[in-house]
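Checklist before submission:
- one chain only
- standard amino acids only
- sequence pasted in full

Submission:
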Amino acid sequence: MLSRKNLQGQTLEQVAALFDANPLAVMVVDEQGLIRYLNPACCRCTGFSAEQLLAKPVMSLRSELTPESLYPSILRSLNRGVGWSGELCCRRSSGKPVWLRVHLSPFAGPAGQRHTLVMMEALLERLDYEQWLSPSPGVDSLTGLPTRSEVEASLRQLIEQSQIDQHRIALLSIDIYRFKQFNESLGHQSADELLVAVAQRLKQRKGSSDELCRLGGDQFLLLSRMDSAAEPLYELALSIQSDFREPVTIDGQRLFVGLSIGLACFPDDGRDPVQLLQHADTALYRAKKLGRDRIARFEPALEQQAQELQQLESELRFALQKQELEVHYQPLVSLDCQVVGAEAVMRWNSPSLGQVVPEQFVALAESIGVIHQIGAWGLDQACAQAKNWLEEPTAPDFVAVNVSPRQLCHPDFVDQVRAALAQHQFPARALELEITEGVLLNNRDKAARQLERLGQLGVRLSLDDFGTGYSSLSYLQHLPFDTLKIDRSFVTGLPANRDNGMLVKAIMSMAKSLGLKLVAEGVENREQVTYLQALGCDLLQGYYFTQPLQAQRFLEWCRHQPLACGLYDAE
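Returned file contents:
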């Protein structure tokens, strides 16, 4: 190896000429930690191309498998101007780790700036590394853990042994909370590295007689034998969650990982391996529904709920194909009691459950990946129907269509809206898209780009459920919304509820100052109508006027509506 003295004053081009043909992997890193040169052997070693690594931070190659305490000692050596040699684990482009023997030598590069020559050699003899290259059957190629195919056999063996020594067996089904968001924001490669890091941290908690498996995706399973002296099942789950209070660093980003954990136990929750695994999964589903860092224990009632959900999911997948979906319409009424708009509301006529409202199936449609098709159908139906109404003197001026967060962020959504308007020759300003506030919390940048594109089409944009917890003046000022819809929870109790009244007044004042129209939804009685009229709310909506109606019934209702809001009787 060249000494530091040999490298003094060398240009990077001269260094490159020395090492381009070297069989060892070589990099040059500048004072800011950015990669300024790498030879072909380095590309072969890491799996990355030169274009992917040049000018990128060298720490983007780090792996969670390298002890965190090692980096400060390396930095101290380089700051003293001396080299460092040792073993480090880096990540390949596939996400798999590669153990390397590394030699670091500081030298003065162009303009006298400190650079570091990095020479690396893969340690193929390491057992862990060999497992990544040639995984044995039943071993996950990414994490090195046993796979689902091995879980049942391992659990069966543990059960047989436990029947002899009277041990209990804990099953902890573990899922990374909202892993899809990590996948979308980091990219698949970094998301794979996150899975490896989580697996390594879970391994540290595993006892010598425990079994840790990867069931697929971002789901892991810990099988733990527990005796009377062992910590209770729930406390074991809490201790695993506590291991993740410290962030995981991927590509220089500190990621705080939340875990959902479902618990089942032998023999309490079953004696058959297949049944126990199902029960652990059922408990995990419950934990995921509860939110971040939640733990749920299997209960028999959960099994019934899971079966009902499975049936609902099975039917929903084919609801559109079987023509079970229908669009109903609810009026938006002006202060002088004229119908100026109609909100399109989806209804699902389930063979087993009857008429199902969106609150019961939209979230499920998002989770199983059919919301885009269902939403596209609903948009098409609303545009077609509203086009037919344009010549009716009592028909609404516009139709409002609800858009789910996943639907809005789909890359084809704006084109889908444009196509629906063109197909039905429906004017863009007669279409209003209702967006829930929550989408701006979870996907703000992507949602903002989509909203800007929709605004350019000329469609109206409404912010639905306003005031439910995510409100921010910044996005009201910078995003092209036309309307705010006050959430029904604030309208409930008016006018008697003084707190709700003050909130509604504040929201109205803010909306007026920003030039936004205001809709109050959930209006249920005459007193609320009078109160909101006095405040100057632009539009009213609720069961006081009518529930959502089928298209023909809605048009008939518009033709025979009373001339004054005071003539309505609550249903």
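Reviewer check: The two ends are 88 Å apart (CA to CA).
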